[in-house]
Design a protein that fits this description.
Layout (H helix, E strand, L loop, with lengths): L1 E9 L6 E4 L1 H11 L4 E7 L4 E6 L3 H14 L17 H10 L2 E7 L2 E2 L6 E6 L6 E9 L1
Antiparallel strand pairs: 1-8, 2-7, 3-5, 3-8, 4-7, 5-6
The protein binds zinc ion.
Zinc ion binds next to loops.
């Protein structure tokens, strides 16, 4: 069995953003040389997510509006966590959107269902953060 590890680094210019990282994960899979196995992709920060969904801008606007209803960023003082911090909403949004995804690798490709794409969800940006890719198989 082979094992491959890679980190992707991000420094997004906004507090919140959704970024399609599918091409970067596909590039890592090619670099790994693994043809059959599993690919794990996880956010390495507790204020960011990795999730799978459709690459459609209306849906992304809907996610943003929905997350702001569930865990509004402001007022910062509404959260017990925000004593000396201001990112309680980012922790909550991250939990809702998830930490990681696992995709089957078949024939050297990510074995997606229809329209599935992998996204990095940033909820407390404007600083360097990373995502871990771990691929195992043969
Ligand atoms: Zn915090």
């Amino acid at each position: 069995m082979k094992s491959f590890r890679k980190e992707l680094w991000f420094d997004l210019p906004t507090r919140r953003a959704f970024l399609n990282i599918t091409p970067k994960v596909e590039a890592a899979l090619i670099e790994s040389g693994i043809r059959e196995g599993f690919c794990l992709v996880n956010a390495m920060h507790i204020s960011a997510s990795v999730f799978i969904n459709d690459d459609e801008s209306g849906l992304h606007a809907d996610f943003e509006a929905w997350l702001e209803k569930l865990a509004p960023e402001k007022p910062h003082g509404q959260y017990a966590h925000n004593r000396g911090e201001d990112n309680a909403d980012a922790h909550l949004k991250r939990t809702i959107m998830g930490r990681e995804v696992v995709v089957a690798v078949t024939g050297g490709k990510l074995d997606f269902g229809p329209w599935e794409q992998i996204f990095y969800g940033e909820f407390d940006g404007m600083r360097r953060k990373r995502v871990l890719i771990k691929i195992i198989g043969e």
